[in-house]
Every structure is written in C-alpha cells, then in structure tokens.
Amino acid sequence: MALPREYRMLYDVQQLLKEFNVFVYVGKRLYDIELMAIELDHLYEAGVVDKTTYMKAKIVLRKEHREEERREKSGRLY
User: Fold this and answer.
1) Contact 13/7 with Cβ under 8 angstroms?
2) Of the four listed, 12, 13, 15, 75, which is most buried by Cβ atoms within 10 Å?
3) 3-state secondary structure string, 11-73?
4) How far apart are CA 67 and CA 59, in angstroms?
5) Is the pTM above the cut of 0.85?
6) What single-letter DSSP state applies at residue 75?
C-alpha cells in the first residue's frame, strides 16, 4: 500500500493526475487549473481516487485558482 501523500501545491495535484495518465496543458494557467479540477472530479466519480485524496487535492486547486484570478486582476506576472 502506498504511503499517504501531502497535497500542498499544484505540482502535487499534477503528479496525482499523472499517475492516471492525465496530462493537462491548455496554455493558460487558470484554464489548466479548471480542467484539472474536472479531471479530478471524474477520477473520484469513477472510484479510483479516495475521498481524502480528492478533498485534499480539491482544496489545493481552489487555492491555486483564487491566487491565479488575483494575479490576473492585478496584472502581475509570475
């Protein structure tokens, strides 16, 4: 059995999705985050991701989405 993983950054969620051969790159970070959330929902609904993992990853995606929206509104680049 695999050890529980920490989900703190977008990279961590990307690695989770990668385990299921889900690679997301749309070209705009905000859209990438939104598509990752949709893919994560599908994995959870299919029963291949447990509830704890799903919730932790969703929290990261929501946080990243909020930060990216703020970044875009302020006109800041990375």
Assistant:
1) yes
2) 13
3) HHHHHHHHHCCCCCCCCCHHHHHHHHHHHHHHHHHCCCCCHHHHHHHHHHHHHHHHHHHHHHH
4) 12
5) yes
6) T
